[in-house]
Design a protein that fits this description.
By secondary structure, the chain is an all-alpha fold. It has a single domain, classed as Hypothetical protein af1432 (Orthogonal Bundle), CATH 1.10.3210.10. Helix content is 59%, strand content 0%. Helix 9 crosses helix 13. 43% of the residues are buried.
Length: 385
């Protein structure tokens, strides 16, 4: 017999007073019996990992399309890196690691194929039909589009995880408007550190991938303070080491420096602002932030990546192809919905739903690989349909 696991009492002893507690969750939309030894946030994490949308992240673009190389990041590997950084910071701050991890694992579920290029073109195609924004789509996935349970659609996640998804906020992401989630308030600290973990992860792995792809020259990074100071320290510590090792060690040091800075800055803000509860966290501006000095260095790094990687001609050329692929697929389905899978076409006819939204959901759920294959099937006369 499994002994009773009192997670409410355990979390009360272990977590900081301003952390989100499983026993104080605002709950799920559909009532379910609790698990004997898994907290509600643990169950959310597991549901996200077992979802179709999570598995599809393996073949969705971060910056480089999957077939350009086996070692570049995908949405899946990026998500795992975000979760790892997020969990580390959550533990250091006495926060709810399970909630932080669940939010981190779900933060990119709504990304369409081909990254931000795909999102941009889908938003344009959906003009007048609600637009497309990947945070809102992530929420649609966990609330409606995943079908794994009898009696309701979606994953039936707790309110706190869904709030973290819709309020995800970074350089590339801006939260939409949704009255259910108190958009005028800051999210819990677990969601706030997930945002910063996302930024730490993508900035640093884009340096790594940019160097590996030779789109970024090593010497060009001399003007980036975060890289220069950490690379110099690594050269001193790892004399004679291969350049590949020095690169990895430098990226590791930058991640550690940024995560440490965030934790220290957040602790200072908690003490200075008298944060004693999750209600205090929600009242003011976000607590999870870099120090002014680290923020300055981080902005310099992001500017460098924008100019030297995201606007590189190879990335721009792939983005151009990606936009064409998504646009042509969308228009073809809209012109002749019978091109859609039979089950989806039948659903469209039976429900009378807005064709634009159904097609948008279908295209957004594609992986890069599937979208490329579907494009060939529809437009290459020599490709079997």
């Amino acid at each position: 017999m499994i002994p009773k696991y009192d997670y409410v009492e355990i979390e009360a002893r272990r977590l900081a007073p301003y952390a989100a507690k499983s026993g104080e969750t605002r709950g799920r939309r559909h009532s379910e019996p609790e698990h004997p030894f898994r907290t509600p946030f643990q169950r959310d994490r597991d549901r996200i990992i077992h979802s179709h949308a999570f598995r599809r992240l393996e073949y969705k673009t971060q910056v480089f399309v999957y077939h350009e190389g086996d070692h570049y990041r995908t949405r899946l590997t990026h998500t795992i890196e975000v979760a790892q950084i997020c969990r580390t910071m959550a533990r250091a701050m006495g926060l709810n690691e399970d909630l932080a991890e669940a939010i981190a694992l779900a933060h990119d579920l709504g990304h369409p194929p081909f990254g931000h290029s795909g999102e941009k073109v889908l938003d344009g195609l959906m003009a007048g039909h609600g637009g497309f924004e990947h945070n809102a789509h992530s929420l649609r996935i966990v609330e409606e589009l995943e079908t794994r349970y009898p009696g309701f659609n979606g994953l039936n996640l707790t309110w706190e995880v869904r709030e973290g998804i819709i309020k995800h906020n970074s350089e590339h992401d801006r939260p939409g408007v949704n009255k259910e989630y108190e958009m005028d308030k800051s999210p819990c600290l677990e969601a706030q550190i997930a945002d910063i973990a996302d930024e730490i992860a993508y900035n640093n792995h884009d340096i790594d991938d940019g160097l590996s792809s030779e789109m970024i020259e090593l010497d060009a990074l001399d003007g980036v303070e975060l890289w220069k100071e950490n690379f110099a320290a690594v050269k001193e510590e790892c004399r004679g080491a291969d350049i590949k090792i020095r690169k990895y060690q430098t990226v590791k040091r930058i991640i550690n420096a940024q995560a440490t800075d965030l934790v220290e800055t957040a602790f200072n803000a908690i003490e200075k602002e008298g944060i004693r509860s999750i209600e205090d966290v929600r009242k003011g501006r976000p607590i999870a932030r870099f120090s002014p000095e680290m923020d300055r260095k981080n902005r310099q790094l992001k500017k460098f990546l924008l100019v030297n990687l995201y606007r590189h001609h190879r990335v721009e050329r792939m983005a151009h192809k990606a936009e064409r692929i998504i646009r042509e697929l969308f228009k073809a389905y809209l012109k002749n919905p019978r091109l859609l899978p039979p089950r989806l076409f039948s659903h469209l006819e039976e429900t009378g739903k807005d064709e634009h939204r159904v097609i948008c959901d279908y295209v957004a759920g594609m992986t890069d690989r599937f979208a490329l294959d579907e494009f060939k099937k529809l437009f290459d006369p020599y490709e079997k349909v």
